Amino acid sequence: MRLLPTCPCFLGASLLVCVTLPLAAGGGANASQSRPAEINVTHVPVVTVKWHHVETSYLVALWILVAGLNSKLKSFFPESALLIISGFILGGIVWGADKAQTFKLVPRNFFYFLLPQIILDTGYFMPNKLFFSNLGAILVHAVIGTCWNAAAVGISLWGCYLGGAMGNLQIGLLQFLLFGSLLAAVDPVAVIAVFEEVHVNEVLFIWVFGESLLNDGVTVVLYNVFDAFVSLGGEKINAGEIIKGIVSFFVVAFGGSLIGVVFAILISLLTKYTGKVQIIEAGFIFVLGYLSYLTAEMLSLSAILSVTFCGVCCQKYVNANMDEKSVTAVRYAMKVFANGSETMIFVFLGVTAIDTDIWVWNTGFILLTLLFVLVYRFMGVFFLTWILNRYRLVPIELIDQIVMSFGGLRGAVAYGLAASLDETRIKEKNLMITTTLIVVYFTVILQGLTMKPLVKWLKVKRVSPTELKLIEKVNNRAFEHILAAMEDISGRIGDNWWTRGWKRFEDTYITWFLMKPEARKNRDYLFSIFHKLNLEDAINYVTEAEKRGSLAFLNQTDGTIVNFEKKLRFSGVMPDIMSELDFGEKSNISDIKDTVPSVSLNIHEHEMKRMNEDFNAHHLLQQHLYRSRKNHRHKYSRSNFSINQSEDEVQEIFQRTMRSRLESFKSAKMGVTPAKKITKHPKKDPNHKTTDKSKKHPYGDEDFEFSEADSAYSGDGGATGGSSQRRGTYTMGAGVENPAFMPEMDTPPPPWVTEAEADTSVAPSQGAQRYLPWSPRNLHRLAPLRISDRSTDSFLMADAPATEESSEESPQQPSQRDGTHM
Amino acid sequence: MGSTNSTLSKIPNAGDLMQETGFSPAHIVRLYDRYKALDKDKKGHLCPQDFGAIKELAMNPIKQVCQEVLDFPSFVRILAHFRPVDKNRPKDPNSPEHINSRSNKLKFIFQLYDQDKDGKISRQELLQVLRTMLEKQVTEEQLESIADRTIQEADLDRDDAISFDEFRKSMEKVNIEHKMSIRFLR
């Protein structure tokens, strides 16, 4: 199942391998690798087999390829376990050949070359909303949970040592604590690898996952502090040192995050200005992400936190600023790198085991460690969740807690830390390495294996794969609004207040700073992609139609086809037809055949109406619901991700827009006023207060702006309203259209238009148009046209005195509004 | 608690309110203070203008809540709908369902949509709701198609309107307890 996506990953993996192999090989000279002795060149060699040149790289690449092809077993075997086992085999082979382990996982390589891209990948694809809304709980688990684990394991082992369960070791309390701290951290790589295949519900996932990322801050601190303590020796530790340790935690954690944020800002700024060099802007992300890791590492701050926050903070702006192709490139590249690194890490973890140098067996130590790690994990999780549940709206159930405890996997980070211990100070380094490896294998293989059955057996709430029904979506959004309203009414600051406040702050300041102006203006920046998508669609449609062979027009001349494509691009028929075709309905095809030769769009309008399926409505809804909180479908699977589905729906909207623009454009040209789509406001209900001031600008029937921002932040709303207006006026490029044409209403006015207005069959003058809506009473009336006071239409500009008055009126407006509506 | 008690006595029917809604005395007092603060002209009841004075509400598309004139008990009752569901509260089998039960929460929402109070959400009402919640660039056509689709999904007896039962059925999977609860109202 995962074969296809893993193929590029293996190419990537083998590339990585070839790069790191010289370093990883540890310099052990292999007998078969040595150059052959001087040979007398007696003839010119045509072809020589230089096996020894490529031996190591070849073997490893081959091995990873073989390892990856074990897709058959993947359904019940977690991939990480498989990889470790493959690593065992590979290690066995190499060891058999060399009698020494040349392919060890050297900590430096691991930490500098294999880990950063995985963390960058997780940060970049992190579901932000979910993450930040659960941040409190995650932090509690990460900090307190990890400290508890470290302390408890260390002290218990020490107690057992004193009790004599481990025989004779040269070890002291501090070293036990050090060992405990390196084993305490839940490993993000392992967690992703296992949880990815078990789709648990989002809260559970984000808790475990977030914890695994954020506990690095704690781990680094604990490790360094205890390392320093061990060097100092037990006598010199006093309160001062301990306080320094605690302070260093804050410095490390916040410093690391800060560096991440700084680099995220850098990346966003960079992508803001690299519109011209799109080919390489994708690369900047990786480079800067890596730099953030190294910078934090250099300053001995938490590097994982740095990369995580770099990814988390920059994703939104980068995706907005960059060209769509670059975004796709970045996504795929990240996945490739991350997958490759993960594969390599696990294989090397397996390989490293086959090394007689490091194996020191001490039954008591090892077994007790395993036991304590498991037990204390459960205890910690249960206790902390119990505390957290008292403050949660919906408590975390017992079953979820069990899965969370079970998901406390240790992985390569622990091994890396163990392997970087200083053996002069820590005599039992090999024992620790052995134990760490065993713990890692146990958790990854055994717990990984049993995770899926456990989840099924316990009936953990899974992520429901079904798409929400329309009414659910509408209601979800409605709830958010209602909750916000309730909070305001009851005057207390609730969770929603923070979210809204942050959103407002972000919208006004941060996006201005970090996003490209174009991206900012059309927040639905996807509009700019549609031309490309539409083109692609047109081509796709034609190829698809050829396959079906049932569309006669394809036999006609090129001219018609060109027309057809152009028409389709604007009419948005394609996606619907595609889906129609898929369902085998042929009814629409004949219609298309008939209408092809002419560039008539009316028929397609009917097609559109008829083809309004879930597809359109759902995506439309999803796209256009007010932006207070966007629902994210989180994508955390390493291998399974798709381009943002919402592009399709906005594409259709755009196509409709373009179609109707074309219509109005065409009919305006012909002097026939088209059937206008009048802004239907809910004004029939006199009590229905709306802060919306619909601005209908000359072309776009659909582009009426609900400038709801006017009442509250008039500056901002005006800006966006004005700029979008400008966009509308520019894109058509058909020159200034005489607004006087507009109000000819062919369609009978809707019933809720009052009689007075129904009588106006003549266009109100421009001045009147502008004045009409602004008196408080008329706010509720349906006035078909309002022209934006920001419009750069020359007609309007000519009304100089009117402009002054209008600007005078507008500040009055908010206060008026407040009085009259609620 | 002395001041709470004395304030409590000032509030008419405080005891009944607490019983009905499940708010604690401290909550009732707090809500009463808020009510008084909102009622700027000291009318004794809240009219829509008072809600208009809350400036954050201006940015909220859902305003129908604040339509009618509200006296204090109704004010409390509305807010009581948003209390988190209290699993531990003993349920007297004879008394009506808790005001913040899932069913009542849904009913509240239903009434928001159903403005003419005929027990069904007609297509027009749905259109109105959608209109307030959807931002610019959505044409009338699109709105109608969404409304049509929505009704189609939920309408089981094909009367082109959503009754309360159909509404409830369609919201089965939604985690109402979570989505319609405000923490500090516990």
Automatic annotation (TrEMBL), chain A:
The UniProt entry, under Gene3D superfamilies, shows: 6.10.140.1330
**Residues spanning the signal sequence:** 1-26
InterPro entries cross-referenced by the UniProt entry: Cation/H_exchanger_CPA1, Cation/H_exchanger_TM, Na/H_exchanger_3/5, NaH_exchanger
Task: Note down the stretches annotated as region Disordered.
Answer: 665-822
Q: Where are the transmembrane segments?
A: 81-97, 109-126, 138-159, 171-195, 204-226, 246-270, 299-320, 332-354, 360-386, 430-449
Q: What is its main location?
A: membrane
Q: A GO biological process this protein is involved in?
A: sodium ion import across plasma membrane
User: Which Pfam families does UniProt cross-reference here?
Assistant: Na_H_Exchanger
Protein localization:
Apical cell membrane; Early endosome membrane; Recycling endosome membrane
| Catalytic activities | Na(+)(in) + H(+)(out) = Na(+)(out) + H(+)(in)
- List cellular component terms (GO): brush border membrane; early endosome membrane; recycling endosome membrane
Question: Keywords in UniProt for this one?
Answer: Antiport, Cell membrane, Endosome, Ion transport, Membrane, Phosphoprotein, Signal, Sodium, Sodium transport, Transmembrane, Transmembrane helix, Transport
- GO terms assigned for molecular function: potassium:proton antiporter activity; sodium:proton antiporter activity
The Basic and acidic residues compositionally biased stretches are 684-693
Q: What does this protein do?
A: Plasma membrane Na(+)/H(+) antiporter. Exchanges intracellular H(+) ions for extracellular Na(+) in 1:1 stoichiometry, playing a key role in salt and fluid absorption and pH homeostasis. Major apical Na(+)/H(+) exchanger in kidney and intestine playing an important role in renal and intestine Na(+) absorption and blood pressure regulation.
Family stated for the protein in its record: Belongs to the monovalent cation:proton antiporter 1 (CPA1) transporter (TC 2.A.36) family.
Q: What is this protein called?
A: Sodium/hydrogen exchanger
Species source reads: Electrophorus electricus (Electric eel)
Automatic annotation (TrEMBL), chain B:
GO molecular function terms here? Answer: calcium ion binding
Residues annotated as domain EF-hand: 101-136, 142-177
Q: What is its main location?
A: membrane
Q: Which InterPro entries match?
A: Calcineurin_B_homologous (IPR051875), EF-hand-dom_pair (IPR011992), EF_Hand_1_Ca_BS (IPR018247), EF_hand_dom (IPR002048)
Q: Name one Pfam family in it.
A: EF-hand_7
Q: Name one GO cellular component term.
A: plasma membrane
The organism's place on the tree of life at top rank: Eukaryota
Q: Which GO terms describe its biological process?
A: protein transport
Swiss-Prot/TrEMBL keywords: Calcium, Cell membrane, Cytoplasm, Lipoprotein, Membrane, Metal-binding, Myristate, Nucleus, Phosphoprotein, Protein transport, Repeat, Transport
> According to its UniProt record, where is this protein located?
Cell membrane; Cytoplasm; Nucleus
Q: Please give the family membership noted in the entry.
A: Belongs to the calcineurin regulatory subunit family. CHP subfamily.
Q: What is this protein called?
A: EF-hand domain-containing protein
Name of the gene: CHP2
